[in-house]
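In practice, a research group might receive sequence data for several interacting partners and want a quick structural hypothesis before committing to experiments. The following worked case mirrors that situation: the sequences arrive first, and a predicted assembly follows.
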Amino acid sequence: MASKYKRPTGTLDILPEDRAYWRFLEETIHDLMSIYGYLQIDVPVFEHTELYVRGVGEGTDIVDKEMYSFKDKGDDDLTLRPEFTAGIARAYVEHGMYKWPQPVKLYAIGPVFRYERPQAGRYRQHTQVSVEAFGEEDPALDFEILSLAHHLFDRLGFKRLYFQLNSTGCPVCRPRYIEALKAYYMEHYDEIDEDCKRRLKRNPLRVLDCKADQCQPVIAGAPKIIDYLCDDCRTHFDTLRGYLDAAGFKYVINHRLVRGLDYYTKTVFEVWAEGIGAQAAVCGGGRYDGLVEEIGGPPTPGVGFGAGWERIILAMKAQGIEPPPLPAPQVFVAHLGKEAKPKAVLLTATLRRAGIRALVAFGERSLKSQMREANRRGVRYTLILGEGELERQVVAVRDMQQGEQFDVPLDRIVEWLREHLQEQE
Ligand SMILES: [Zn+2]
Ligand SMILES: [Zn+2]
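A structural hypothesis for the assembly, expressed as tokens:
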């Protein structure tokens, strides 16, 4: 029967068959975060709209086109979080974390919401892990963030990982670069598309990641921000590169990499995995030294990255990466006859209390039908309770792999199963 209701465009039902990927990702993330000393934080799914307008920035695609904004019944302007960093920075200020020992290293996991054109791996509600470190300017912290991102994808099983890296400068040197970029683009005004003409006014750095064919030759000849960095930004960038070189990480400098958000300063990066098609960036991030101040906190540097789980899982499937399987049922309890059924129900409860993953047959069905179900569930053992077994105080155990059947005393069955199931783990 077709359902009257369908899930909204751009949303996803995560079905049990995909759960092993999600669990693997979640466990890997928690484990790595503890290795690197990052603490978990949760922030609300919605915040005051103004936070994102200030924090993410007007002129960005997120603020201009993609936010789910609404007035609530108290007439407050709210927005479903389109990203994590602004909300985490808000919590950092609100809870006075700038008084904690710095850097404060945090991570959050949860859904974010963007009104985007639906495409493979991109959803209007999608799950992100966001990793943020506040209060430290040292490029060694940028290196830590990049290493952590790399480590995550390495642990997930991705091969041939490398970084794309750039610097977006700072309020000292970026304005000079933007002037040069604008001047160059004005010379080529007739050659660029309407989008870029608009970007040139509102968010000029974004012309560099225009995807239109028409704009590619202009982008290729554009001035490079690397040539405009101030001494501070230059030293920061070179020091980070020094760490990456020494650690043997592969990276390429991508002069076009600016990322979509206003708040980035100095380092911006993406992690790429080869061989997963056009959407090869598996995560991205950078430094945002102006963000905390922008939203009303004390001047506080920050650096971090975010990664979308749906895209990671899509990439894992494309790469043929199999997550460890989730625990499957081990035992199925079948029964035959009126007296056996309540015993079977209670036996199942006892097995579960003993930590054995047990299923019981519901309803009144033929043994054949129950055995078919046991087979379908993929259990190792089926326990059969009938009148004969009850009389003898045993349970008939069918080994579903070997096809053998034998009796085990009812008062020994938990112990027997523990022993035999353990052998197989
Ligand atoms: Zn600078
Ligand atoms: Zn363009």
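Before designing any experiment, note the following. Residues 169-170, 172-173, 229-230, 232-233 surround zinc ion (ligand 1) (CB under 6 Å). Residues 16-173+229-318 form a domain with the BirA Bifunctional Protein; domain 2 fold (CATH 3.30.930.10).
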